[in-house]
Amino acid sequence: MTDVLISGGGVAGCALAWWLRHRGFRPTVVERAAAPRDGGYKVDVRGAALTVLDRMGLTGSVRAHDTGMRLARFLDRRGRQLATMDAALFGGRTGGDVEIMRGDLTRILRAATGDVEHRFDDSVTALRPTADGMDVTFARGAHRRFDLVIGADGLHSTVRRLAFGPESAYLRPLGHHIAICTVPSGFGEERVELLHPAPGRTVGVYRTAGAPDARALFLFRSPAEAPDQGDAAGQRALLGRAFAGSGWRVPELLAALPDAPDLYLDAMSQVRMERWSSGRVGLVGDAAYAASPASGQGTSLGLVGAYVLAAALAEAGGQPAAGFAAYEQRMRPFVAANQALAERNLKGMVLGSATQIRFQTSMLRLLPRLPGRERMVSRVAEPIRRASDAITLPDPPARAA
Fold first, then answer.
1. Range list of β-strands (E), 69-212
2. Domain with 221 in it
3. Where's the FAD-binding domain (predicted)?
């Protein structure tokens, strides 16, 4: 049996473990976090990714955890309502698309992997090719041999750095930063997304149905310099500078940051690589082709990529180079279509001037009364729908059918 190490226990890593197990491989998942991470922001699952979940038998579980969001409200600096929008339209969701908290989706996928070994509080520190596999060194000092190693460890992938070199060669910044954190429930309104746009920056807060707390989102133009990932104080200071003078409840949100248990701040970037494999090492999900949160398709790319990679490796019959090549050939057009959404979406997420904000909110107020509204809505959602279906999936294995 082929032993595969998957670095990263998120959506892509757990989905890949599930499909490899059902394709006759023996996967092991190693995750840097000390315990399962159940937080995170809400994510969308669309198109081909819904087919993947259906073939896993997980559609019902995922739909049961839909966020239930119903409305987006745009507010001015005094908290007055500028416009409202249906939550599904705001998120570009049509038909059977699902919105779910990332932590809920990861938990569902992880539970479905059954007897797959998950090693928490550990990570890969070195990779050494051998005659017939890879010798892997872990942070806790252990060494193990695997036939294949797959990096599913996100935008700042350790496996990618070890196998392909510095991340600066592959990351393409989109000119904006994003910050996400948990805030007290009083900041939110149940099943409503509250949005305060200002030139060059946007703040959002939402609370899903029955949630004990709320989530805050900060989007802003990237500064000339940014603090390191582990510098929480520096990140809070950066947000304070970026949103100085903001209205609505932004000063209160900034004051609440020291108590946030999960502040995440990073540049919005894409990963662009000429190849996603090197010898017996491959990449999947954000590690290989991050589309950025602006695309709305990162989760779907991870689910579809895991499915396609497992199928390609199985069909290659013990020839990893052939499997990786088939995986790339099938996935690249799908990745390109979904990465292309990011810059288009960003233009509507962070507006450059007060005039643009007035125009956007005026159009949103008029939309319900405009003739041909349904055609207009369909046109808005069409690029996302087309990109989410821009792949023909390989057939599932008989045992997972």
1. 71-75, 81-86, 98-101, 117-120, 124-129, 134-138, 143-146, 148-151, 171-184, 192-198, 201-207
2. 174-268
3. 2-161, 268-337
Residues 320 and 258 in one domain: no
Q: What is the pLDDT of residues 217-233, one digit of tens each?
A: 999 999 999 998 889 99
Q: Could you give the CA distance from residue 335 to residue 339 in angstroms, rounded to a whole number?
A: 6
Dist. CA 356–CA 347, nearest whole Å: 10
Crossing angle between the packed helical segments 11-22 and 47-56, to the nearest 10 degrees: 50
Q: How far is CA 35 from CA 45, 122, 175, in A?
A: 25, 10, 33
| Single pTM value for the model | 0.95
Residues 166 and 194 in one domain: no
Find how far residue 289's CA is from the centre of its chain: 11
Strands 26-31 and 117-120: parallel
Cβ of 371: how many Cβ atoms within 10 Å?
6
Q: Which of these, 62, 108, 60, 66, lies nearest to 88 by C-alpha position? A: 66
Q: Is the predicted pLDDT of residue 135 greater than 80, yes or no?
A: yes
